[in-house]
Predict the 3D structure of the following.
Amino acid sequence: MSGRISALVLTSLVVVGCGDPAGSAGETGSSGTTGGGETGAPTSGGEASGSGDSGGGEDELQGSCVYVNPFSMGEECREYRGGGWSEADQAADCAAQMGTASAGACEYPATLGACVLPGEADAYLRLVFPGDDPSQCQLTQAGCELFAKGTFTPSPVCEDPNPPADPNAGVFEWPTLECVAPLQGEPAGMSEGGQVCTWSMIGGCTEEGRRFADYSSCEPVLTQRPYAAVPPYPPPAEPDTRLQDDPDYAAEQAWVTKQVESCGCVCCHQASLTPSGAGVWDIEAEGNWINTFSPYGLAFAAGLLDSSPLGAYPAAENNGFDRMTTGLPTTDIARMQAFFVAELKHRGIDTAQYADDPPTPKIFYDQEIYEPGACAAGQGVAADGTIEWTGGPARYVYVLAGDAGNPGVPPNRDLPAGTLWRLDVPSDGAAQASGSVRYGVAGKGLGQGFPQQGEAPAPLVAGDTYYLYVLADIGVPITRCLFTAK
Ligand code: HEC
């Protein structure tokens, strides 16, 4: 049934998402097991309380779900409308958002507007965006219309033309390799001169046995994907006494904790290091923190789900930590897999159910398999090399061979074979307007991601087809189309 649910919706704008439960939940039906608990769904076919616009027919309100949108990092609410929504469907969808379900409509003192998503007449979603900050209107509307292909109805807050969101705020900061002397009392590092070198990146890890927080900084990491404090998965019904009763288990759990401590994941998954709380799983949670993972999180960690669209360093460049197989970076792939597979079994979950799940997170996988069409008016490269695009100011402008794949995220997916040229706006620079960039020319203060700075790209051949790929920021494409060189 999930085909009709555009589950990702605004989270399509996510910059670098790691947990996209929607990616695996709906599809398998397995998500019933994740049931975030208290669904409070209406008992009958929708004598739902609340909004005046129910009242039979297709608009019938069945229930709603409040959750955190990882892109806006704010609260959002979705209404399940139409009699085609079963309670189980609603519960599964809400659990996939890590939300809290209720029977009523989405009601707020002030909203930016609502977005009705394409769906079936008897089962569709209406999203409601709480808030009274007009600077959020433009992005909210764009998210609804461009990414979710929905219909946006502005509230009074958003009815007037509004100042556009600042395209230079909160932008992706590129990782740097930070090399420092080891902490006092720690052994010499593995790099030149006994230094310890660590990438300041989500999936960057310092040397095994050391802590990421001692050797790198969370500041850039927090720009590399949306951060929000999201409550943990609900605790098990029966108290978990394995840490007390089972020394072997306790030793493995402690090893997993140490592995996490070496990596950038701590910036959002170790509460004391985060701005305002962990995102679902928290290695500082009381009791056995492994229980803060949802089943999706366990399957992701075990590598039962393919999370390659998130990008990863080769282990040799990441102090031996691999993230190509398991979701959590590790120096011992088999040991990490075994721990999390056993954890799923402990929860009574059949690991076979993940076999056919598509790669996650969905938003990046969708970007990976995107098939571009021909450029429209206002998009393309003119004879003098001037590049035009639509969708607003850009931080990355790619020109690729016509048959190249889609660019993904750094560190290993951002320069697909066939990349001819990429313009980079540094994170402290201003996003560039359409028409202000020429092929092969990285102007003052701008960077060239390919080829190396100072080298000229291959000239475009008149009559040949090329792929123009323009991003507002990493993970946020605004123009993707094929053009013929003039
Ligand atoms: C900048 C913040 C940030 C960093 C760094 C980060 N995450 Fe997350 N992660 C989140 C947030 C927020 C959520 C919850 C919302 C969501 O699922 O998108 C989350 C959720 C997850 C989930 C889903 C959890 C569940 O049980 O459903 C997994 C798995 C995950 N992260 C893995 C990782 C791994 C592995 C790393 C390190 C390689 C990492 N994350 C680094 C912010 C972050």
